[in-house]
Design a protein that fits this description.
The complex is a heterodimer of chains A (about 400) and B (about 120). Chain A is mostly helical and about 400 residues long. Chain A is built from 21 helices and no strands. In chain A, helix 1 packs across helix 6 and helix 15 runs antiparallel to helix 16. The radius of gyration of chain A is 25 Å and the shape is elongated. Chain B starts with a strand and ends in a 6-residue tail after the last strand. Chain B contains 2 helices and 6 strands; from the N terminus they run βαββββαβ. In chain B, the strands form 2 sheets. Chain B has a 4-stranded antiparallel β-sheet with strand order 2-5-1-6, covered by helices on one side. Chain B is of the alpha+beta class and about 120 residues long. Chain B has one domain: Dimeric alpha+beta barrel (Alpha-Beta Plaits, 2-Layer Sandwich), CATH 3.30.70. In chain B, helix 1 packs antiparallel against helix 2. The chains are: A mainly alpha (about 400), B alpha+beta (about 120). At the A-B interface, loops of A face helix 2 and strand 6 of B.
Chain lengths: ~400, ~120
């Protein structure tokens, strides 16, 4: 049995994005909409535990928030300019539509897209976009976001305040991009959702469980995006990538929290349902014929998912997929991952050759990849040196423990 | 509608050859004409190099009449790229202002800072 207060939180989180999206359109003011939903949350905490959750929670929240917004607006307006009596009496443009109509209208999809594209406007910094998306669409509290993104609560609160002030003062329009703007604006949205996912994915277990929730949140946002933009193949590509990656979570850590590398994972632990949904989503993404970066990464994840055991992995196909990915996004990290695949397909010396010219000094995965390839190529003293460099880099403690063990074995 | 300052930043060396510069200025004038036609134009100015700037300041805190003023050779901040010119425009939202900024960037290949005005006195 859920604590009644937690139940209020869960219901609000579920409906937050939808209600804020509708209210922001009706009020024409995103900040006011968020504050009003926050007020409604406090009202729900007072009344729901006693009277129970109303039959239409979203309708209740919207009605309460809309009423609260009028009060709040009148209060603030009165303070600001007493002379403008007419404006004070008129109040914000609330419309008289019943809330059910507002929530069921076909416009709701547009409302939600408007909110998403506003939160992910490229004029905002990436950390600000991530925070706004989690707060306004995900309905997470500032405390939860701060904990998940490993910053202090005052830092996160300041980041959110600053981002909302920029939306208001810089005049970031509350609207859906036009069809010809979409190709430029969509990647900014997908980058935000994927960053939320990878933040969660990097977490392992125990104390990091809050961060793992970020993966669930990113998948929820992606599913939602697929519904809102069904014709965009990269949206499905991103969802497929997330599902196929998340499916491995149960095998990614030992019970004591230590990470398990992909080749050593017990594949029986992989989540069958997530894998099936991931494959089906990838199939849908393939129908467009466009292979964008997210779809290509999902294809790579699917090759791993299809291999019954690690040695049976189709490495030549993975190398080919990385070649295609590299052509679209020529980043050192992609080249690093490609080199690891090359080593599997053609041997460690070939892998080391593919690493030539990829300079990522201080980035632990790069040193680890080099160290392991050198070790496999029989170049032990170079491998030991490289493992030590890897240990000098920033990284999680469980990972460091694993590296020290490997190093001890290599030193023998 | 919001007023936006489009501030153009340019390196203090490496001014283009006169014939290149003429073409740039002509195309910028065309954009300004388009701004006028779209009712977006308020005013614009090209500035002399930052080396011609002078900074005036006083030690007196806010609300206290200064006893003396200090004058120094500018610019205010010694940075590689200095304000070289600006437009003040009126636009319905940030995207519209960014659209004008892109036009200028495409012509000058210089960065433009787009900043909303909190109020405007004319």
């Amino acid at each position: 049995m859920l604590d009644p207060r937690d139940e209020v939180a869960v219901v609000f989180r579920e409906h937050h994005g939808r209600v804020v999206a509708v209210l922001a359109r009706v009020l024409g003011d995103l900040g006011l909409a968020e504050e009003a939903v926050q007020d409604a949350y406090l009202a729900a905490l007072r009344t729901w535990p006693e009277r129970g959750v109303p039959p239409s929670p979203a309708g209740w929240i919207l009605t309460t928030a809309r009423r609260g917004a009028v009060d709040r607006w009148r209060r603030e307006r009165r303070g600001r300019d007493k002379q403008d009596e007419a404006a004070r009496l008129r109040g914000p443009a609330l419309g008289s539509d019943p809330v059910e109509d507002l929530l069921d209208a076909p416009d709701i999809a547009d409302d939600q897209l408007r909110l998403l594209f506003t939160c992910c406007h490229p004029a905002l910094s990436l950390p600000a976009r991530v925070a706004l998306t989690l707060r306004l669409i995900g309905g997470l509290t500032t405390t939860e976001i701060a904990r998940a993104l490993l910053v202090t609560e005052p830092t996160m609160a300041a980041r959110l305040t600053r981002a909302k002030a920029k939306i208001r003062d810089a005049g970031i329009a509350y609207r859906v991009p036009t069809a010809d703007e979409l190709p430029e604006r969509l990647p900014a949205v997908l980058a935000v959702v994927y960053l939320i996912f990878t933040e969660g994915h990097r977490s392992t277990a125990g104390a990091d469980l809050v961060r793992a929730d970020l993966c669930t949140e990113a998948i929820r946002l992606s599913r939602h995006l697929v519904g809102l933009l069904p014709d965009e193949p990269e949206v499905r590509g991103l969802l497929a990538l997330e599902l196929l990656t998340e499916a491995r979570r149960p095998a990614r850590t030992e019970p004591d929290g230590r990470p398990v590398a992909l080749p050593e994972q017990d594949r029986r632990l992989w989540d069958r349902n997530l894998l099936a949904e991931g494959r089906a989503t990838l199939d849908e993404a393939r129908r467009s014929g466009v292979a964008g970066p997210y779809r290509l990464q999902a294809e790579i994840a699917a090759v791993h998912a299809d291999a019954p055991t690690a040695p049976e992995t189709d490495w030549p196909r993975i190398v080919a997929l990385y070649d295609a990915l590299l052509a679209l996004t020529p980043s050192p990290v992609v080249r690093l991952n490609r080199a690891v695949a090359v080593a599997e397909a053609r041997g460690p010396e070939q892998g080391l050759a593919a690493l030539e010219g990829v300079e990522l000094a201080g980035y632990r995965p790069w040193h680890v990849a080099r160290a392991e390839l050198l070790h496999r190529a029989g170049r032990t003293s170079e491998a030991i040196e490289e493992f030590r460099l890897a240990l000098d880099c920033a990284g999680s403690e469980p990972e460091s423990a694993m590296l020290r063990e490997t190093l001890a074995r290599v030193v023998g | 509608m919001t007023h936006y300052l489009l501030a153009m930043y340019q390196p203090q060396d490496g001014i283009p050859e006169p014939e290149v510069l003429d073409g740039v200025m002509r195309r910028l004038a065309e954009v300004t004409d388009e701004m006028r036609a779209a009712d977006a134009f308020v005013l614009s100015a090209g500035l002399h190099p930052a080396s011609t700037a002078t900074v005036v300041r006083s030690d007196a805190p806010l609300g206290v009449a200064p006893v003396e003023f200090l004058m120094s050779d500018g610019p205010f901040a010694e940075v590689k790229e200095q304000l070289g010119g600006f437009w003040l425009i009126d636009a319905p939202d940030l995207d519209a202002a960014l659209g004008w900024a892109r036009r200028i960037v495409a012509i000058t290949s210089l960065p433009i800072e787009v900043r909303p005005a909190a109020g405007l006195v004319t």
